[in-house]
Design brief:
Structural class of chain C: mainly alpha
Number of domains of chain B: 2
Order of helices and strands of chain B: EEEHEEHEHHHEHEHEEHEEHEH
Chains: A alpha/beta (294), B alpha/beta (284), C mainly alpha (266)
Radius of gyration of chain B: 23 Å
Largest sheet of chain C: none
Structural class of chain B: alpha/beta
Number of domains of chain C: 1
Number of helices of chain B: 10
Number of strands of chain B: 13
Distance between the termini of chain B: 35 Å
Helix content of chain C: over 70%
Strand content of chain C: under 5%
CATH architecture of the largest domain in chain B: 3-Layer(aba) Sandwich
Strand content of chain B: 25-35%
Oligomer: heterotrimer
CATH superfamily of the largest domain in chain B: P-loop containing nucleotide triphosphate hydrolases
Number of helices of chain C: 13
Helix content of chain B: 25-40%
Strand order of the largest sheet of chain B: 6-7-8-3-9-10
Largest sheet of chain B: 6 strands, mixed
């Protein structure tokens, strides 16, 4: 659905994106991570047909993002990272303006989204809080029911309750076969909602992680704490790693029975799924020298 | 350090209160997280505490000063980093800080040193107008600590920053706390609140509904659960079981004995779930 | 052309158009009402008291003795250029560069409306606003003078003068629009897009102060508003106007093409 091939765009500062290659199949939510200034925005600019690449291409649904930009727009729901609306409009006027520009007549979806996010769009946009503006941006991106979503930090400024409303909406859209590319700085959010996540650093895609596999691995490793350190001697049949005198990390293949049977004879006081997370995998790509400031 | 008793505030000066009968106390060296849905009264409370809004009703003291009659000295003792607070685009980062320093009559910190700790030293002489959102954000952040504040008001200190910079900001906050600085933190990021705060308070529809430590809240609201996927009749079934409930424990035992477990993970309540539990009703 | 965008432009900018029209109109009204065939002579006597350079700079040097000449010299040497020029340069920047600078252009372009259509709509709006200002003020002028001095205004030569004036302003507007399309921030767009038209205006003024500085007129498109020549020969004005029209089309066209081709950082 989304196809980026050998995409290169270099700014005068020497920053940009270099030989970027990735594709996002239909129905997938792809998390796009990376330090500030690593090239996330440049990639997005190319997908929306705003920027001229120096080499390579970005395509959506087989159409070239730059050349066929106007033809592609009805298929794309875009949520910019730094939202600048048209000044002096009320929220309602802006939504109507966007519907008119897009030529979408149906207001049902717009209204149900407005209700869902509990947004009162009657006020002037200038006077809206950050959270309200973010809701307005979300509604604008979703109201024409596009096939592809390109979302730049979609939950910024939303309170946790609204973050959940948004993530539920995203989940529904995936269920309807929509394709999503979403940038985020919040690992927990990406791990929860994305199918795969890629990380870009200094203009290059340095890693792509299958979140399901990651979660899978996560749920097969347990940190177990014992009341009696002597219990560690009873763990012979299990694959484990000692963390402290009374704490181990046990990796379970499929044999949960022997896992429980062994533990039944021990004085277990704590049992947690281990915290292996996207953060552990990706954090090393951040850091002061990981990105350069825009 | 902060004492609020029976605070009311109404923008329309009638009985439509944005904040209603709020009372809380924050002790020296404490990081207090002020949480709640948008529009619940967080900014209003913050505004009264920092002297931006006139106190209408109630008793509020900040750093020992009564905010009813705010004095210059009080502003020497507080630092404020709000998202919307502006930096002067025409001045360089360094000039911005030097300008701000002069507003205080207490010893201030070295501007260059502050720029260094958030990694802005290499752009010290660049005009702030050319900065990215994240860089401006960091500049506002360090500007708020230039007067060695005793009480530090922080609004969304990590939002929009990449995880590496965010974690540096969190470390700085932790270090200042160690030095005895009191922090009043508002955020929508529950992971940040959980990590930094000694106590959190939830404000909903202008009323403070709950104040406790994240740990106590998790114990109180969170039920320890285990999610088990197991094979049954050719398919995979997922069940959520409580470790506390006796029948659930028996059920888990049964599943273990069938030996058909595919996957299992334990779930702890997160501050986010508690936020939704506590505030969810308030939004309807 | 996109009607929705055009209407939004109108809603955002009608105040500027109205303001410029009204200020312009004050001078239109005074010019006609001050005209008194008998007192022209007295007025000219009065003007001899002023330094010649100043009168020239303000375009009052030769007031003419008929209504046409009087009104033309009163308005088209200074007033009819400066006020519409303010509209032209302020709006040129707002139509493209400001949207790019603030990022709101992203919303205009995430619709099925092509870049060319967006830019053409903005260009059409830019020129329409200018024409509207002149329609309002010329309309008032024509109506008023035919009421007060029936039959005095020679319409053909007067309209020819207006045509040339409007076309010099669209050339200035085309330059403003071109830079609005070329530049990625309001600062540069204004520096060139407003700087060059204002320089034109200043050069015209300077060239009229003193014969020694006359050469400056070759640096200004506004020097083509040769009032006496056009009034005497409306066909000449028409010719000049059409050439300027051609230049304007090229400038606006170049703006549209550049905007369509450029790489946007939004």
């Amino acid at each position: 659905m989304i196809e980026v091939s050998n995409l290169t765009q270099v700014y005068r500062s020497g920053k940009g994106v270099f030989n970027l290659d990735f594709s996002i199949p239909e129905g997938e939510i792809f998390g796009y991570l990376g330090p500030n200034g690593a090239g996330k925005t440049t990639t997005i600019r190319n997908l929306l047909g705003f920027a001229n690449a120096d080499g390579g291409y970005a395509r959506i649904n087989g159409l070239d993002c730059r050349k066929d930009a106007a033809r592609l727009q009805p298929m794309i729901g875009y949520l910019p990272g730094e939202t600048a609306f048209l000044e002096d409009m009320t929220g309602a006027e802006f939504l109507k303006f966007m519907s008119d520009m897009r030529g979408t007549g149906d207001t049902g979806r717009r209204d149900s989204l407005t209700e869902r996010f509990a947004l009162d769009p009657r006020g002037k946009i200038k006077k809206m809080s950050k959270g309200m503006k973010q809701k307005l941006a979300i509604i604008t991106a979703f109201m024409h029911d596009p096939a592809v979503y390109i979302l730049d930090e979609p939950t910024a400024g939303l309170d946790p309750f609204m973050q959940n409303v948004f993530l539920d909406l995203l989940e529904e859209e995936r269920g309807r076969g929509k394709t999503v590319m979403m940038s985020s700085h919040i690992f927990e959010e990406v791990q929860r909602s994305c199918d795969r996540a890629g990380i870009i650093r200094e203009g290059r895609l340095v890693a792509v992680e299958d979140i399901e596999a990651l979660n899978d691995a996560k749920s097969r490793t347990y940190a177990v704490t014992f009341a009696d350190p002597a219990d560690l001697g009873k763990l012979d049949g299990l694959q484990f790693r000692r963390i402290s005198s009374n704490r181990v990390e046990i990796t379970v293949g499929h044999d949960y029975r022997s896992f429980f049977q062994t533990l039944a004879h021990c004085s277990v006081v704590g049992l947690y799924s281990s915290e292996q997370s996207l953060e552990d995998v990706f954090m090393k790509y951040y850091g002061r020298n990981g990105g350069t400031d825009e | 350090m902060i004492k609020v008793e029976g605070l009311y505030h109404s923008y329309s000066h009638d009985d439509k209160y944005a904040v209603r009968d709020a009372s809380f106390e924050i002790t020296r060296g404490e990081v207090f997280g002020f949480l709640g849905p948008s529009g619940a009264g967080k900014s209003t409370t913050q505004g009264v505490l920092t002297g931006l809004l006139q106190l209408q009703k109630g008793n509020v003291s900040v750093a020992g000063y009564d905010v009813k009659k705010p004095v210059r000295k009080m502003f020497n003792k507080i630092g404020v980093s709000f998202e919307q607070s502006n930096v002067y685009g025409k001045l360089t980062a360094l000039e911005n800080l030097e300008f701000y320093r002069k507003l205080f009559d207490v010893p201030t910190r070295d501007a260059m040193e502050l720029l260094e700790i958030v990694g802005l030293d290499h752009v010290a002489n660049q005009r702030a107008a050319e900065f990215s959102k994240g860089m401006k954000h960091r500049l506002t952040f360090i500007r708020s600590m230039i007067n060695n504040p005793e009480i530090w008001f922080l609004d969304e200190p990590t939002t929009g920053l990449d995880p590496a910079i965010a974690s540096e900001i969190k470390d700085i906050i932790k270090r200042e706390k160690e030095k005895g600085t009191t922090v009043f933190l508002t955020t929508h990021n529950m992971f940040v609140a959980d990590e930094l705060c000694d106590r959190v308070g939830f404000i909903i529809d202008g009323e403070i509904k709950l104040i406790d430590s994240p740990r106590n809240l998790k114990l109180q609201y969170g039920e320890k659960l285990v999610e088990v996927d197991y094979r049954k009749n050719g398919g995979t079934v997922r069940e959520k079981l409580s470790f506390i409930d006796e029948s659930d424990r028996r059920r888990l035992n049964e599943i273990v004995n069938t030996g058909a477990i595919e996957m299992m993970h334990t779930k702890e309540a997160t501050l986010e779930e508690i936020f939704i539990k506590v505030t969810g009703r308030g939004l309807e | 052309m996109n009607k929705t965008l055009f209407l939004v432009d109108l809603k955002a900018n009608w105040r500027v158009i109205l303001f410029v029209s009204l200020v312009f109109m004050i001078y239109v009204l005074t010019s006609v009402l001050m005209y008194d065939p008998d007192s022209i002579e007295k007025l000219e006597q009065m003007f001899t008291l002023f330094p010649e350079g100043m009168l020239k700079a303000l375009g009052f040097d030769t007031l003419g003795t008929d209504l046409n000449g009087y009104v033309a010299h009163y308005l088209y040497g200074f007033i009819a250029i400066i006020f519409p020029l303010i509209y032209i340069i302020v709006i040129a920047n707002k139509l493209i560069a400001k949207h790019v600078d603030s990022g709101s252009m992203a919303y205009l372009l995430t619709t099925p409306v092509t870049r060319v259509k967006v830019a053409v709509t903005q260009a059409v709006f830019h020129v329409s606003g200018l024409i509207l200002i002149f329609l309002i003020d010329i309309g008032v002028l024509v109506l008023l003078s035919s009421a007060v001095f029936p039959g005095s205004l020679k319409l053909a030569s007067f309209l020819s003068l207006n045509f040339v004036t409007i076309m010099t302003l669209t050339v200035a507007g085309g330059i403003g629009f071109l830079f609005s399309c070329m530049c990625n921030d309001s600062r540069n767009s204004l520096a060139f897009g407003a700087g060059i038209p204002v320089a034109f205006f200043v050069f015209k003024m300077v060239s009229e102060i003193d014969a020694k500085l006359e050469g400056f007129k070759y640096l200004s498109v506004f020097s083509l508003i040769e009032i006496d020549k056009i009034l005497a020969d409306p066909a000449y004005g028409l010719g000049v106007g059409f050439i300027l029209l051609g230049v304007s089309v090229l400038l606006y066209g170049a703006g549209v093409i550049i905007f369509n081709k450029k790489s946007l950082a939004i």
